[in-house]
Design goal:
The protein is α/β, with parallel strands linked by helices and 189 residues long. It has eight helices and nine strands. The protein is globular and about 40 Å long.
Amino acid sequence: MNNYIFVVSAPSGAGKTSLLKEFLSTDFGKQNFVVAISHTTRLPRAGEINGKEYHFISVENFEQMISDNGFVEYAKVFTNYYGTSVIEIDKLLSESKNIILEIDWQGAIQTRNIYKDKCKSLFVLPPSLIELESRLKNRKTDSVDVIAYRMEQAESEISHVSEYDFSLINDDFTESVKKLENYFRDNIQ
């Protein structure tokens, strides 16, 4: 069996993280996939643990890693940096793991350019922009200004869906998890 890097992107609030968390709790997900942990300069949200959800580092450390070519991909999103380290990806590939990268469309392009046929991509869409805004408000993690900015960015992000191998509309959570699992099954065998 080959191992791949699966890039999963979505506008903020589309449900990407929840879908992946549920998928990775299945036997198939646990046995065949691992999420690469990204670095970020943003502050941890309540309950987030350094080294689990993200590697939380300073802007200075992040910029030093950029200078050292330490990232497969990175981007400045809103006011913070996010990136996936070369060391993390190389380690997981050497362990013959299928890797899931939760990254934006800019990072997807960078990753595909490096890993070519080892990279597969999936874009998670919300059922509508109205539902997306409702989800952002209901999760109560961002200010009104941040939600407004995320909504402004959502249309631009969604415009890149055609660059992905597969897209999934997350309108029914249980069905979306099944579709996600089927996509992964079909692409590692």
